[in-house]
Write a structure and sequence with these properties.
This protein is of the alpha+beta class. The chain has one domain. It has four helices and two strands, in the order H-E-H-H-E-H.
Length: about 90
């Protein structure tokens, strides 16, 4: 299992903001710049859901997966060690 699959299995996912959100938490329309960014989301039932809303937005999908991995590691979960790109299993 690669790192991304392990994180997904724990309830984390990465999305491009504009693919899933049109407005922010206050109902204000998101700018095109924000819609191009990437975010980490969590299934509500995941033990990794706590604090996910504080993970910063990323400029790339790869960077967002790095944020997801860091978030998981700071909560005591270490995904499988894989050298290099997180796509490799």
């Amino acid at each position: 299992m690669n790192q991304r699959d392990a994180l997904v299995a724990r309830g984390l996912a990465v999305y491009q903001v504009g693919d899933v959100y049109d407005v922010d938490l206050n109902g204000v329309a998101l700018s095109e710049e924000v819609k191009r960014k990437w975010c980490v989301a969590a299934v509500a039932a995941s033990d990794l859901a706590v604090g996910v809303e504080h993970i910063p937005l990323a400029d790339s999908e790869e960077e967002a997966w790095g944020h997801a991995r860091f978030h998981a590691e700071t909560r005591g979960y270490a995904p499988p060690a894989v050298a290099g790109n997180m796509d490799r299993g």
